[in-house]
């Protein structure tokens, strides 16, 4: 056994499961019974007396092992709750090697914590069969979520990613409901229970336990077929929903059938299953889950109604559908060997998901989106001491949930984009196809991918990528200028700006993307392609114009001299969207860390008031919002920055207007939504007046006054400027909305309240049973982002930890960790960091300890920044007439 991980004994391996679920209670205790028969390969020459499997929160009633030499029954069955294991002790030495059959009888509960086999509550549309589970207020559908280690909550199994096996599944259900699984239905058998029958599914391919899935409910579907033929047939693609919602699955459906064909071509391997089902699940801990052949989604990630949904969700649905489909090859067909290489699944699916959306929606500028969203979020987490390498040691399955984070997904995809840009997309994808062919239906490591890419490109990929994957952090490249040449120095970038020599040992391979010429329009690629030393001098650089990290394809920050930053700002009309985003994002990060200054950032951004691109504005508003949030403790600076913000956005918001016109681009619509939200909350008077006028008309019953994409801007503006009456109206809207995205939009808007009393009211609403567990973080994060009421979030957590927060969220530590990490990381004073650390000091924080470290590191880094730059910003605001 590898000492760096706690895994099951290696001498017993499953090859096939036959799982039967029956006696499911559609109400009451929501119990069920099951039998699992596991064909097991035993390779232990000195004999054994027990077998160890994974099981969590299950009762095991009996187990029998059939070998060539007879049948043995388990004499003693014991559980190790902490390690989530069951030991079947047969009471005697068994001397046997070869194939055996292990049959286990068990029972479990369909829980309500979005993990394992669980139930989701919903309010149905129209008639519902009498058999559907319900209570006084809601109806329920049943589905599964097994990644990373929750198949063991549903049935006893060998729950590790490299213990792949095939699966036969049968489920006893009421005749008027539908059962789904990874594979198509094979047959329906009669059942002893009145009104029930048993649905039997075809055998699955060999796969990891975390990819098994099933669902039961009052489902309907929309269907399409792939254009390509697979084994002579067009594959059926379906989007399943509870009754009354199926038409909102059409947009996902259109995307899905096209993307399956696209990936089959790109990966040079046909989609391997006979069907693709997408299922909308009413309560869901993540965005979606790539179960092979039965992909599950939270409703806002798969359903879209052109008449009632905000247009931003169109982008979200298309991308998440593509991301999960990428996993059908990268993750499902070829699976990481162990959770330490989770990034192989998630980083790749993120990058290739955007690649597919770029192919189908070229006018969305998805790489610009990627740079302003994914890359910047990856930088934010990786700039902390408490970050972790992309490939991170994972001791056991219980540690893995905390690395489903911005490093595995977003830094992982950012370095893949960097590598693809360096090798060329065609060569890169050929290497990926070779990797998939070599390891299909088995497991692989990062080195296996590097080997395939090295072979395809003729370059030693491992030599320049290894440090990016195995070392923590990323570099900042500091530029110094001399006539005709520039000096470059790389060092580790930390948000806190205080890198110690022992933390700065890595010398990264840095693709320079250096362009130079007499002007931005005449610039061309420089002959020097990479920085491979700590310091270097690059000659033949034209002083007229030069730029490093063109299109921000390299995962590093650039720190230019102040004058050069100014000149690049002056050349902005000739820079790409990605270049502008990189310039602003780097200037902001350098200000926070002390490599640059906030005065330099403010002067740079001021030049962008004539900008017309949504993605550049998105970067500006995020960064200026963060500066305002960090310095909100100082009244005069806060006031001056408010005036700066208003002056900055006024020309753009007045130009964009309120009306959506036929034929305008997706990005123009996004810009309007974003600017009106920013202007309304910042107090731009004309925007506030118009928003309140539309809000009043909407509340009075005239729904036509509010475009679906402007709900957030209007609700947020009303809540901020009207207070309690608007709060009540938005809460009412939350409870009555039939729009799929309506609840999320309402919760985000409630975070704009301006008084402690109203913030407390919002928090008690969030923690009532009116708000589903999956959404409790949304409203909390919105309050935490609001400097006016932020302290109330921490007070609420502290005062209600034992009575509300821990009991409500701790059943699913993914949900608890996310709630804390993003609900408490916006403070900017050491005192709060000390209080949080003291509060959790004596608690068992396993499962969310990493999140607490990130919170502490983030708060202290921003506290340092606030202390250092407050005076500088005050001076700049005075000098530029934002403060008298």
From TrEMBL:
Cofactor: Zn(2+)
Annotated site, Transition state stabilizer, chain positions: 409
Catalytic-site annotation from UniProt: 324
Peptidase M1 membrane alanine aminopeptidase domain segment(s): 251-468
EC id: 3.4.11.-
InterPro entries: Aminopeptidase_N-like_N, Aminopeptidase_N-like_N_sf, ERAP1-like_C_dom, M1_APN-typ, Peptidase_M1, Peptidase_M1_aminopeptidases, Peptidase_M1_dom, Peptidase_M4/M1_CTD_sf
Protein name according to UniProt: Aminopeptidase
Organism: Ampelomyces quisqualis (Powdery mildew agent)
Lineage of producing organism: Eukaryota, Fungi, Dikarya, Ascomycota, Pezizomycotina
């Amino acid at each position: 056994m590898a000492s760096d991980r706690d895994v099951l004994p290696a001498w017993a391996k499953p090859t096939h499961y036959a799982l039967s679920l029956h006696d499911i209670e559609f109400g009451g205790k929501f119990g069920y019974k099951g039998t699992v028969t596991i064909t097991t390969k035993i390779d232990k020459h000195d004999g054994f007396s027990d077998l160890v499997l994974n099981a969590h929160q299950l009762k095991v009633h009996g187990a029998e092992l059939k070998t060539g030499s007879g049948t043995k029954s388990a004499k003693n069955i014991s559980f190790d709750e902490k390690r989530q294991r069951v030991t079947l002790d047969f009471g005697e030495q068994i001397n046997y090697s070869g194939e055996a059959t292990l049959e286990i009888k068990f029972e479990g509960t369909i829980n309500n914590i979005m993990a394992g086999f669980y139930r989701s509550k919903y309010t149905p549309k129209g008639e519902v069969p009498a058999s559907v589970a319900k209570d006084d207020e809601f109806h329920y559908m049943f589905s599964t979520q097994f990644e990373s280690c929750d198949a063991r909550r549903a049935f006893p199994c060998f729950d590790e990613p490299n213990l792949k096996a095939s699966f036969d599944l049968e489920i006893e259900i009421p005749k008027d409901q539908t059962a789904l699984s990874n594979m198509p239905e094979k047959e329906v058998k009669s059942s002893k229970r009145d009104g029930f029958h048993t649905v039997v599914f075809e055998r699955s391919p060999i796969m990891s336990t975390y990819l098994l899935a099933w669902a039961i409910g009052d489902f309907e579907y929309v269907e399409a077929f792939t254009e390509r033929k697979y084994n002579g047939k067009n594959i059926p693609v379906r989007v399943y929903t509870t009754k009354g919602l199926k038409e909102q699955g059409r947009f996902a459906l259109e995307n899905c059938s096209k993307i399956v064909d696209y990936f089959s071509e790109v990966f040079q391997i046909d989609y391997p299953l006979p069907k693709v089902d997408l299922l909308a699940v009413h309560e869901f801990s993540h965005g979606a889950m790539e179960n092979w052949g039965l992909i599950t989604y939270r409703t806002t990630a798969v359903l879209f109604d052109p008449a009632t949904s905000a247009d931003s969700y169109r982008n979200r649905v298309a991308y998440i559908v593509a991301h999960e489909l990428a996993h059908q090859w990268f993750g499902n067909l070829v699976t990481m060997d162990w959770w330490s290489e989770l990034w192989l699944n998630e980083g790749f699916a993120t990058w290739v998901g955007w690649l597919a959306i770029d192919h189908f929606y070229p006018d969305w500028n998805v790489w610009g989106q990627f740079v302003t969203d994914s890359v910047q979020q990856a930088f934010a987490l990786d700039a902390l001491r408490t970050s972790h390498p992309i490939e991170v040691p994972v001791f056991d399955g219980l540690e893995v949930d905390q690395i489903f984070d911005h490093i595995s997904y977003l830094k992982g995809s950012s370095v893949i984009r960097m590598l693809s840009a360096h090798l060329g997309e065609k060569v890169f994808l050929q290497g990926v196809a070779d990797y998939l062919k070599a390891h299909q239906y088995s497991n692989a490591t990062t080195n296996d991918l590097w080997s395939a890419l090295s072979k395809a490109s003729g370059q030693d990929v491992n030599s320049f990528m290894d440090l990016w994957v195995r070392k923590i952090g990323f570099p900042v490249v500091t530029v110094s200028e001399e006539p005709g040449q520039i000096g470059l120095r790389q060092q580790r970038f930390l948000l806190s700006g205080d890198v110690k020599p022992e933390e700065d040992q890595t010398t990264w391979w840095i693709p320079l993307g250096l362009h130079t010429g007499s002007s931005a329009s005449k610039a061309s690629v420089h002959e020097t392609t990479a920085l491979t030393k700590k310091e270097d001098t690059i000659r033949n650089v034209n002083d007229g114009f030069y730029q490093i990290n063109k299109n921000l394809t390299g995962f590093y920050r650039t720190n230019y001299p102040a004058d050069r930053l100014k000149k690049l700002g002056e050349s902005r009309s000739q820079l790409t969207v990605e270049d502008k985003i990189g310039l602003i994002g780097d200037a902001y990060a350098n200000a926070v860390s002390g490599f640059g200054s906030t005065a330099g950032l403010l002067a740079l951004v001021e030049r962008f008031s004539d900008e017309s691109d949504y993605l550049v504005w998105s970067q500006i508003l995020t960064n200026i919002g963060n500066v305002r949030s960090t310095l909100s403790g100082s009244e005069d600076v806060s006031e001056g920055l408010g005036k700066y913000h208003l002056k900055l956005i006024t020309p753009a918001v007045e130009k964009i207007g309120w009306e959506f016109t036929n034929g305008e681009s997706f990005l123009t619509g996004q810009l309007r939504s974003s600017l009106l939200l920013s202007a309304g909350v910042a107090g731009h008077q004309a925007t506030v007046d118009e928003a309140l006028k539309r809000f009043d008309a909407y509340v009075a019953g005239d729904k036509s006054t509010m475009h679906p994409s402007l709900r957030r801007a209007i609700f947020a503006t009303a809540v901020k400027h009207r207070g309690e009456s608007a709060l009540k109206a938005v809460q009412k809207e939350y409870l009555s909305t039939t729009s799929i995205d309506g609840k999320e939009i309402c919760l985000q808007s409630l975070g704009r309240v301006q008084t402690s009393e109203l913030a407390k009211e919002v928090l008690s609403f969030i923690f009532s049973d009116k708000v589903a567990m999956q959404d409790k973080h949304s409203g909390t994060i919105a309050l935490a982002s609001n400097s006016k009421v932020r302290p109330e979030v921490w007070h609420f957590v502290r005062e209600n930890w034992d009575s509300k927060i821990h009991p409500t969220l701790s059943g699913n530590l993914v949900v608890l960790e996310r709630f804390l990490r993003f609900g408490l990381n916006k403070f900017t004073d050491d005192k709060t960091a000390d209080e949080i650390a003291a509060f959790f000091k004596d608690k068992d924080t396993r499962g969310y300890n990493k999140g607490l470290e990130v919170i502490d590191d983030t708060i202290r880094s921003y506290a340092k920044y606030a202390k250092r730059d407050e005076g500088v910003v005050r001076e700049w605001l005075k000098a530029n007439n934002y403060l008298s």
